[in-house]
Amino acid sequence: MASPRIVGLCGALTDPSRTRWLADHLVAEVARAGGGSGSVVAILQDCPGLGTTFERQHAPPALEEVLRRIETCDLLVAVTPVYKGSYAGLFKHLIDLLDMKLLDERPVIAAATGNTERHASVIDFHLRPLFSFFGARVLPSGIFVGKNDLDGERRMVPTLQAAVDKAVQQGAVALAERR
Which pTM was predicted? Predict the structure, then answer.
């Protein structure tokens, strides 16, 4: 049997960023724990033509490949920065281009970064409903990284580390169940 494929979707519009770091970290940890392979799709670098593609049939080949990677992965790690209380616009635009039937029952780890703890609600009030609409199975533990949750060396505070560990374990279990 092929090893599970974990795809991270990073909605960051800057690089480097906490959002990109979180996407890379979660994908690597879930791949390690679940015995799979992982890669991250970065909206900033990997989605040429996204902002001008309004219908799937007009997607440039590189964007079409990104969409297929998301639609065929075994587990999706969706990470967005929070802008004015919600997910990034281009992140949502990419999701809008997906075939909604192809995410049915797909496990998703929902994660976000923001400056204030008030932004943590984006996981339960925006990301869960968004992926639930597609029939995806959003895992119970969402991850939020605020500006004080990492130090300058990207070391996590203990509460964030515990949350990441829990989400990674849930991801590994979800991958095992799909085999």
Answer: 0.96
